[in-house]
Specification:
Elements: E1 5-7, H1 12-19, E2 26-29, H2 33-40, E3 48-51, E4 62-65, E5 68-72, H3 77-82, H4 84-89, H5 91-97, H6 103-108, H7 111-117, H8 124-130, E6 134-138, E7 143-147, E8 152-154, E9 157-158, E10 165-172, E11 178-185, E12 193-204, E13 207-216, E14 223-224, H9 226-231, H10 239-252, H11 263-282
């Protein structure tokens, strides 16, 4: 690695000001799991790293607020997976974290870094989008809040502007909604997925009234599948309905191939896993905690 300067500001606003230089070689560092690998490979050669390890304590906390579940961006993925509050309010997040990489990575990686890295193979973006989560972004003067789905612009690209940092994620109260997350890997269970699919739905008297279906890994960015969602609107779920939803999803998804599977293979996964994920969301789960 090439030499670089390391600075450790005491607040997000101070960190944002240090990043807002117009110089692309100045980068933020949260957990650093992806950043350090890219630096070792020579993909990134920053002249300055702005560490976020000393920012406000709130950025490391998980709490329940009036709008739902609040998670600070510097919360480690391990802390997120162990949180009883997360397990109660959004158990699909807890389940997804069990096979998200390995424990060594989860102990260091942060939620904000996980989202900002924008690798389409990440597990949590589809889950958070399905749950209707929002991300609060801080800069030197204030900030803004956007849906998580609006964070992504392309492969390894976000809509974060120069000098902006993810501050927190808010997951709205789910009420009676049910959710699931399934991933298909070509290797071990904790490897990058060939497909990740998250489903959140509301039911009424046996009918599905509202559905959010989001895929990752098979596309350049997390993608909602509106046609598949419409196929499930105001119906009782059976094999025929799930078949139609799977076909709609496979036709709609902008699938791309990579080392984890060809585009044709991933399209077939989308067709099959939509039905499985909806079934999983509708099936009552007995807690093992």
């Amino acid at each position: 690695m090439t030499p670089f300067e390391l600075v450790e500001p005491g607040s997000l606003r101070e960190a944002a000001a240090l990043l807002d230089t117009g110089e692309p070689s100045v980068r933020p560092m949260a957990g650093g799991t992806a950043l350090m690998l890219m630096m070792k490979m020579g993909v990134l050669r920053p002249t300055r790293l702005v560490s976020l390890r000393a920012v406000e304590r709130r950025c490391f906390e998980i709490a329940e607020g009036p709008e739902g579940l609040y998670v600070g961006a510097m919360t480690s993925l391990s802390a997120l997976g162990r949180s009883p509050l997360v397990a109660r309010e959004a158990p699909v997040i807890t389940g997804a974290l069990r096979t998200l990489s390995n424990v060594r990575v989860r102990n260091v990686a942060t939620l904000g870094g996980h989202l900002a890295h924008a690798d389409p193979h990440m597990d949590l973006p589809p889950v958070l989008i399905a749950l209707g989560a929002r991300v609060t972004i801080a800069d030197a003067k204030g900030g803004r809040t956007i849906p998580v789905e609006d964070l992504y612009a392309g492969y390894l690209q976000t809509t974060l502007r120069q000098g902006e940092l993810i501050a927190e994620v808010t997951v709205p109260r789910q009420g009676a909604r049910r959710a699931s997350y399934l991933k298909c890997t070509a290797r071990s269970a904790d490897d990058w997925p060939a497909l990740g699919i998250a489903v959140s739905l509301a039911t009424d008297d046996g009918f599905v009234r509202d559905t959010r279906i989001v895929i990752g890994a098979a596309t350049d960015t997390p993608m909602r599948l509106a046609a598949a969602e419409n196929a499930l609107k105001d119906v009782r779920v059976d094999d025929a309905v799930l078949g139609r939803a799977g076909e709609a999803a496979a036709a709609e998804a902008n699938v791309v191939g990579d080392a984890h599977g060809s585009a044709a293979y991933k399209r077939e996964l989308v067709r099959v896993y939509v039905a499985r994920a909806v079934r999983a969301a509708l099936t009552p789960v007995t807690s093992d905690r």
